[in-house]
Specification:
This protein is of the alpha+beta class. It contains twelve helices and 15 strands. It has helices at 15-28, 33-36, 86-99, 114-118, 144-150, 172-183, 199-202, 205-217, 231-235, 239-246, 294-310, 315-318; strands spanning 4-9, 45-50, 56-66, 69-77, 104-110, 123-124, 129-131, 134-141, 167-169, 189-193, 222-227, 251-255, 268-271, 275-279, 287-290. Helix 3 (86-99) crosses helix 5. The chain is elongated, with a radius of gyration of 22 Å.
């Protein structure tokens, strides 16, 4: 689409940026002015979308509060230019701008706009709440670089239950992004099978927070960790183990019974009934992830359940002090 997107600081932004926000949010949506204009404007980058004849049609802003996380907000397209795909162009421009600098993008979406953001790789991560009298949800993208590279070939990239094409990986960084993106969307179940709870792969703050959020969500949350060797966990404290011992009814770890070895012995992570990250080898970051493959997940879940039923608890971890 033949449009241009220009970036400004608040101090140098043309009046069109403020005028569009005033028209859409304050005048049209009745957002109180004291909520629309805030101190964040001073630290944010502001984006103005214009047509080839320089007619202004849309705005947005991007700012960061943490080194690895950026926030997208105040996205607005003037009424006369809606329904033409301009909002999607603007959003994907922001993702492209942020993809090389940030590992996570967050935004607050009006309820009716959820499908719009899902098409660009964002998923819901909160319950519905009121903001300025308008129902909102929080949404995030945990792999902006991967999503940005996939826009030309995928619809609803990385959306659990919707993105049906496999994601291949051969680097640990890509595998980590896929693991986190699936874990962050699980509503009830994460089942993980691996040789060990590798510290580089699983002993990470973001992964702990994602597991913690799932485990605390409701009483039916089901997080199971099935491994072969717990010695590394005893020798070095692990964030997931500490979380597990604080939430024993929601997170459980068992050791594989070597008398009943798995038939197809490759590590995997299952998210609810549709998502899987599958590795071809315990020692290499090579494999694939799918976000909507209930058939494969069902087969792996049956294999996991058999190993789980034959497994045993870790006495060493049970005796560790909190």
């Amino acid at each position: 689409m033949n449009v241009r997107v220009r970036k400004y600081s608040w101090q140098l932004a043309p009046a069109d940026v403020r005028n569009i926000r005033q028209s859409v949010f304050v005048d049209e949506q009745k957002v109180p002015p004291e909520l629309e204009w805030d101190d964040t404007d001073e630290i944010a980058d502001h984006y103005l979308m214009v047509l080839p004849d320089n007619t202004p049609v849309g705005v947005a802003r991007l700012f960061s509060t943490l080194e690895e996380t950026a926030h997208i907000g105040r996205m607005a397209i003037l009424p006369a230019h809606r329904g033409k795909g301009l909002g999607e162009v603007l959003l994907r421009h922001l993702v492209s701008e942020a993809a090389e600098r940030f590992t996570e993008l967050q935004l607050s979406a009006q309820e009716h706009a959820i499908p719009f953001y899902q098409r660009s790789g964002f998923h819901v991560c909160s319950d519905l709440y009121d903001d300025a009298g308008i129902p909102h949800v929080d949404m995030r993208c945990l792999a902006p670089k991967l999503v940005n590279d996939a826009y030309s070939t995928r619809e609803n990239p990385m959306l659990l239950g919707e993105d049906r094409d496999a994601w291949l990986f051969d680097r640990e960084s890509t595998m980590v992004d896929l693991i986190d993106s699936l874990t962050g969307q699980a509503r009830q179940r994460i089942w993980l099978y691996d040789r060990v709870l590798d510290h580089d792969l699983y002993d990470r703050l973001r992964f702990r927070e994602l597991i913690s959020g799932l485990a605390r969500r409701h009483r039916l949350s089901d997080v199971r960790l099935l491994i072969h060797d717990d010695k590394p966990l005893v020798q070095r404290r692990h964030q997931i183990v500490e979380l597990m011992r604080r939430l024993p009814s929601r997170i459980e770890l068992r050791l594989v019974n070597e008398d009943y070895p798995p038939v197809d012995d490759q590590p995997f992570l299952l998210a609810d009934r549709e998502g899987v990250v599958y590795r071809h080898d315990f020692y290499k970051p090579e494999g694939f992830a799918t976000f909507a493959n209930s058939g494969r997940v069902k087969l792996l879940a049956e294999s996991f359940q058999r190993m789980w039923d034959a497994g045993r608890s870790s006495l060493e971890l049970r005796e560790l002090p909190l």
